[in-house]
Specification:
flat, 5-stranded mixed β-sheet, 631 residues, 5-stranded antiparallel β-sheet, alpha+beta
């Protein structure tokens, strides 16, 4: 093809400077376009001066030779991207059994070096599926041991392939000596620590790294104390592994703490992986003040550090103290969004008595406070919306009035948009259906929403509610606490049984609260008999058999079929309500349609134990029967 291209150039049909590019494209047969991706050159037409190229979304695409020379990059047939298109199965087998050769192929495709991001783009998702991270962790360990690869400390720097073999020990020691500044030296030192099992001479590597770190520490102590402490921890790990004692001339962690005046700012600058070591070090050097200092730090920390502080208190036998602090911050709505994020995510049974509706109120307050913070974050908001169990778990044991207050706070909050509010309110209603009326603005005591009940049935249901909240639920909470003390909640059958019972009790509590909120007590006195109403006694005749039946229609919770007492909400009563003497109606019973005639309507003759009781006397009446009513 070279001769043909030269002839075209002589005739002035193509530019001479494009000859090399066109020859490379023709020989390789594959190319890369920055927009259309990988292309396969199927036809070289020297008459019409064009290539025909198959791109993924442009089959048989025609491209002028001169334009192709400028816009296309030739790819060798053994380039990894070409292999993906022509031998995907072979690459997948290589990825499974021969990692080294596959990475070597990728690096050679990019001129001998490529970043991790480039390697990932080349292999995912066709060659490597969803398990890229796990696969790469294993491959990285392999290529670090292989002497042909140079794996840099920084992920943004390219991995290189060299024909000459250089051992991991030699490479790391060379990198350690060439590194400029404490941060760069610390990065290599950490790599040495991670690679200790693969080094030829760990002692030599550790001694070199410790010496170079110690040499740099004085230069950074005042301006970057967090970096110095991180390096001290790394050096001390090496020193401990070699069983070397401090010589008294080296900078130790005490020197860092002597310079720190702003503990929260210092801990924020320190890598999160060093939190636990830093807290333990500070505690060791400040035995008198660490509790107060860490209590202050708790509410100024990121989520992970907050969790580490709580764990340190627990390990030090100060669990009650940190629990009291958490409770105070929550109840006073002073907890930060990061602390609330940790408390919400951990939801440890250790803090079961804190994890209630007030936690959600404190979360709302924290987010509202963050709206005026320069470092505003949506992490807590995202967590609340993403964890579908959080809000139900926080409110499941709460009193209805408390949930009402929380609902109002949520409705007026500015930290959720309308769609998120609707979602959260829906979660509340699912646990407490009675809240729906508050949300929709309906009055629960209105005629169409209320329940007409006799005073006797109202007192019975109130008594059931009182026993539930004052006896059964507290007893269940004690059972949960006792079962939790047995440990290993995953295999703790007593704990699981107690938690299941808690769900049943909470469901019944919600049902009773909804019923009692809607109930309107009455003794059905002075009932009108011009038509059938609750409180009337009705005689009807079943016409097919000419059989008389008598029904007394009472409240929603009154039912005694053997005595002919039915609720006004029953299907039969609904057919009777509002009808007069002489009216007829039909009922389907046992798949048979029956016709009835109303013969007479009169006031009920049922004797109520608490007849004539007024609603404002309900509590006194409950006491009279030995019950404590919680209205």
């Amino acid at each position: 093809m070279r001769e043909e291209f030269e002839k075209l150039a002589t005739e002035g049909k193509i530019r001479a400077k494009d000859l090399d590019a066109l020859e490379q494209l023709t020989e390789s047969g594959y190319c890369m376009h920055r927009t259309w991706g990988l292309g396969k050159i199927t036809t070289v037409d020297t008459v019409l001066l064009r290539f025909l190229i198959d791109f993924p979304d442009k089959p048989e695409h025609s491209m002028d030779l001169g334009f192709a020379a400028k816009s296309l990059s030739p790819l060798a047939k053994d380039h990894v991207l070409v292999k993906v298109a022509t031998d995907l199965q072979g690459l997948q087998e290589m990825a499974a059994v021969n990692h080294i050769d596959l990475i070597k192929l990728v690096l050679k495709s990019y001129g001998g070096s490529a970043t991790v991001a480039q390697i990932q783009d080349a292999l995912v998702p066709d060659v490597i599926g969803d398990d890229w991270r796990k696969w790469w962790e294993a491959v990285r360990k392999e290529i670090k041991k292989d002497g042909h690869f140079r794996v840099p400390v920084k992920k943004s720097e390219p991995i290189e392939y060299n024909e000459e073999v250089v051992s991991l020990q030699a490479r790391l020691l060379g990198d350690m000596q060439l590194a400029r500044g404490l941060k760069a030296k610390l990065a290599v030192a950490m790599e040495i620590l991670k690679s200790q099992d693969d080094l030829e001479n760990v002692t030599e590597a550790y001694q070199l790294a410790m010496g170079l770190l110690d040499h740099e520490l004085p230069n950074y102590l005042k301006n970057q104390p967090e970096l110095v402490l991180d390096a001290i921890f790394a050096r001390n790990d090496m020193r401990k592994a070699l069983r070397i004692e401090a010589n008294g001339e080296q900078i130790e962690d005490q020197a860092v703490w002597d310079l720190i005046n702003d503990l929260p700012a210092f801990m924020e600058a320190l890598p999160a992986t060093r939190n636990k070591l830093a807290l333990a070090s500070y505690k060791h050097h400040h035995p008198e003040s660490w509790e107060a200092d860490f209590t202050d730090l708790l509410n100024q920390s990121q989520m992970k550090l907050a969790g580490d502080i709580v764990q340190l208190f627990n390990d030090a036998g100060k669990a009650d103290e940190i629990k009291e602090t958490l409770s105070r911050l929550v109840n006073q709505h002073q907890a930060s969004s990061e602390l609330m994020l940790w408390l919400g995510k951990s939801r440890s049974d250790t803090y079961a008595d804190i994890l209630g509706p007030e936690v959600f109120r404190a979360m709302i307050t924290a987010m509202e406070r963050d709206q005026f913070n320069e470092k505003r974050t949506s992490r807590l908001n995202d967590f609340i919306m993403g964890d579908m169990d959080l809000l139900p778990e926080l409110i499941e044991t709460a009193d209805l009035e408390v949930v009402k207050d929380l609902t109002r706070a949520l409705q007026f909050s500015s930290c959720f948009d309308d769609m998120d509010k609707r979602s959260l309110l829906g979660r509340i209603v699912k646990i407490y259906p009675a809240i729906q009326a508050l949300i929709s603005g309906e009055a629960t005591t209105s005629e169409d929403r209320g329940l007409l009940v006799s005073w006797d049935s109202l007192l019975r249901r109130r008594s059931e509610y009182t026993e539930l909240v004052q006896k059964k639920i507290p007893e269940n909470s004690k059972e949960i606490a006792v079962a939790r003390s047995y440990g290993d909640l995953r295999e703790n059958h007593e704990y699981k049984a107690a938690k299941e019972m808690q769900k049943i009790l909470m469901k019944r509590k919600a049902e009773l609260e909804m019923d009692l909120t809607r109930a309107r007590g009455t003794d059905f006195a002075d009932v009108s008999t011009s038509s059938v109403n609750p409180g009337t006694r009705v005689r009807v005749k079943e016409l097919s058999q000419q059989k008389d039946e008598i029904y007394t229609i009472l409240g929603a919770w009154d039912s005694d079929p053997e005595s002919g007492i039915i609720s006004y909400l029953s299907p039969f009563a609904k057919n009777l309500i509002s009808k007069s003497v002489g009216d007829t109606f039909e009922m389907t019973q046992d798949h048979e349609v029956r016709k009835y005639l109303i013969e007479s309507i009169e006031p009920h003759q049922h004797t109520f134990k608490h007849a004539g009781l007024h609603e404002d006397d309900a509590e006194d009446a409950t006491s009279a029967v030995g019950q404590e009513v919680q209205a």
